[in-house]
Specification:
The protein is an alpha/beta fold. The protein folds into two domains: 3-124, Cobalt-precorrin-4 Transmethylase, domain 1, CATH 3.40.1010.10; 130-241, Methyltransferase, Cobalt-precorrin-4 Transmethylase, Domain 2, CATH 3.30.950.10. Helix content is 33%, strand content 20%. It contains eight helices and ten strands. The protein has helices at 21-28, 38-47, 77-88, 109-117, 130-138, 155-172, 185-195, 220-225, and strands at 3-7, 32-35, 58-61, 93-96, 121-124, 145-150, 175-180, 201-206, 214-219, 236-241. The strands form two sheets. The protein has a five-stranded parallel sheet with strand order 3-2-4-1-5, sandwiched between helices. A five-stranded mixed sheet has the order 6-7-10-8-9, sandwiched between helices. Helix 6 links the parallel strand 6 (145-150) and strand 7 (175-180). Helix 6 packs across helix 7 (185-195).
């Protein structure tokens, strides 16, 4: 009977210690992997000291955006075929993300849904999630929150979307979470401080679990008063909160 293992990976350089030993041990024993990026997946598995040569393993990539979270969408046919062949042979399968935890902020959810439909056991393994780590470190509402992926890339559209999330946070009493690429982090901070209300909380989390880890939550007015408003070019998670509870006190 096959099992689909959801294998965590580090979200920062030189942070293999953030993946628990039991998860590393399971990954070492697998030889079929469905992954977001084959190159980085091979590098990660090789760093674990696998039980067989890397050349004998199967790595198949998923597209960035499956057409449906409820099933395998366009472009995932190869991954689906590898999945079915492994199940037919009684092999276990590893699912690997670029985002730390498979199925969260990555296209792996489509394969998990496929496993459930096919009656294949799904086992999530403990590991780092930048979204949860950022929320934990933010001091914002961790009881009600929503994740939005990437926001619009251009300043006017980004400002409009940030104001929409601000209103949503106020109406739903939710922390609103989104991510951005390293080279756009500074622009996101600048637009947020120009667009959001003075008492709205804005949080930044960068290079989580890495040597350059930075987390900071302030009201917009306090951000504008503070000295440090220049962000490093590293992966970032951003949070907005202006709900009914005052988590800034």
């Amino acid at each position: 009977m096959s099992t689909l293992y959801l294998i965590p990976c580090p979200i920062a350089e030189n942070a293999l210690h953030t993946v628990p030993p039991y998860a590393q041990e399971i990954a070492r024993d697998l030889d079929v992997f469905i992954v977001e990026r084959a190159k980085t997946a091979r590098h990660f598995i090789k760093s674990l000291g696998p039980n067989r040569p890397i050349q004998e393993m199967v790595f198949v990539e998923l597209p960035d955006s499956p057409s449906s979270w409820g099933g395998v969408g366009a472009g995932t046919e190869e991954a689906e075929a590898v999945f079915h062949e492994a199940v037919k042979s009684g092999k276990n399968i590893g699912l690997l993300s670029e985002a730390g935890c498979p199925g969260v902020a990555d296209p792996g959810a489509a394969i998990v849904a496929l496993a459930h439909r096919e009656g294949v056991k799904v086992v999530p393994l403990v590991g780092p999630s930048s979204i949860l780590l950022a929320l934990m470190a933010s001091g914002m509402n961790g009881q009600r929150f929503s994740f939005h992926g990437y926001l619009p890339p251009k300043r006017p559209e980004l400002a409009k979307e940030l104001r929409r999330l601000e209103n949503l946070s106020r109406q739903q009493d939710q922390t609103q979470i989104f991510i951005e690429t390293p080279y756009r982090s500074q622009m996101v901070l600048e637009v947020a401080l120009e667009s959001l209300q003075p008492n709205t909380l804005f949080g930044v989390a960068q290079d989580l679990s890495g040597v350059g880890e930075f987390t900071r939550t302030l009201t917009v007015k306090d951000w504008n008063k503070s000295g440090k408003k220049t962000l490093e070019k590293s992966p970032g998670v951003f949070l907005v909160y202006c709900g009914n509870k005052d988590f800034s006190k």
